[in-house]
Amino acid sequence: MKNFANYLAVFLLSFHISVGQIDKKATRETQALYKNLMLLSKNHIVFGHQHATEYGHGWSGDEERSDVKSVTGSHPGIIGIDFSGLSGRPDADIVRTAEALRKNVVDTYNRGGITTVAWHFSNPASGGGFYWKDSVSTASMALIKPGGSHHENYKQILKTVADFANSVKANDGTLAPMIFRPYHEFDGDWFWWGKGHTSREDFIAVWRFTVSYLRDSLNVHNFIYAFSPDNKFNSEAEFLERYPGNEWVDMVGMDNYGDFGRDGKYNLAAGLKKLKIVSDYAIKAGKLAAFTETGLESIPNPTWWTETLLKTLKAEKMSLAYVLVWRNDAKSPTHFYAPFPGQVSADDFVKFYNDPYTLFEKDLKDIYK
Questions:
Q1: pLDDT, tens digit, for every residue of 202-228?
Q2: Catalytic: which of 54, 185, 238, 361?
Q3: For residues 193 and 205, what is the distance between their CA atoms, to the nearest angstrom?
Q4: 63 is a catalytic site residue
Q5: Any known ligand binding at 257?
Q6: What is the rounded CA–CA span in Å between residue 340 and residue 344?
Q7: Strand runs (DSSP E) across 161-222, as ranges?
Q8: SS3 330
Q9: For the chain, what percent of residues have pLDDT higher than 70?
């Protein structure tokens, strides 16, 4: 009877996984990544760092280097890049940016690591960049949706994204999968796509068009689509307020710095409650879940990794595929979120690395098979 129960559990899990992914034409490697992350998240979490191999604390552009690797001997399992440079710039700059990003994504894939993509998308209808700037920025989600004045321009920008997605070919000819996380932290007002600058209906319309156009018109089949607000929700209903629907999302997540020590303020109970809302919804909907951004700038707390982050992640039975901390600026002496050799939290980070629950690049085996 026990064997039958195990068989049934595996069958149900595999069924759950197969219906979860929204691109039925996803590449074999993208399907494998989705399923393997689903399985890993039952008992582990993959550690990620934004821009980890592009630059770090006091350095930039060194081959095979990351601050995480300098401390632990392994790159992060998840490496974050950004599509910010693929629009709103001269064509020659976009070509150069795409080439550097392509090398980064392919190198990560060839090593067996995973790429996640943020999109600090410069406003396509006004100045102000990706932030909202009063008197400069235009509320542009209504303008780029189907029927909007800047919709054709948006389609051209998505074509650039698609061309990049279809260019990241490894040595064996396969395309590197990417976790694509557009319009993040949309529940705040700091970005032009934020809640105060666009209606729920327009946000959902743009999200659905973005997925549909990339997947169905431009033949991008190596994306896993991630939905991640900031931490301004306290219930599942609030979390889902701008959710475009299960048929438009592969992964649900949350960005949360505020509950984990920003400005010296800790509210780990609140942070855990929100993470559990994300994880519980993912389990119910057959989706992946992740802690898509967090961290403590400058990491002044020497035991932040084990006493704050790890304890929270392990406090409840949650299924989170990865946790990503923000970047280490190359020039700023204080803007960093992962330790480097000699940093006050480095020893604790090694304990975090050695915990069986956390997975780094060296721990990922055949993630694309």
A1: 999 999 999 999 999 999 999 999 999
A2: 185
A3: 12
A4: no
A5: yes
A6: 9
A7: 178-181
A8: coil
A9: 95
| pTM given for the model | 0.94
pLDDT digits (tens, 9 = 90+) for 81-119: 999 999 999 999 999 999 999 999 999 999 999 999 999
Fold classification of 2-363 (topology level) = TIM Barrel (3.20.20)
Cα gap 50→47, rounded to integer Å = 11
The verdict on whether residue 304 carries a ligand-binding annotation is no
Task: Please indicate if the annotation marks 221 as binding a ligand.
Answer: no
Q: Which of 293, 297, 307, 316 is catalytic?
A: 293
**Three-state SS across 12-37?**
HHHHHHHHHCCCCCCCHHHHHHHHHH
Check residue 264 and report its DSSP letter.
Answer: G
Kind and range of the H or E run holding 161: helix 151-165
Rounded distance between C-alpha atoms, residue 164 and residue 173, angstroms: 15
What contacts 365, CB < 8 A, 6 or more positions away? 112
293 is catalytic: yes
E strands in 158-215: 178-181
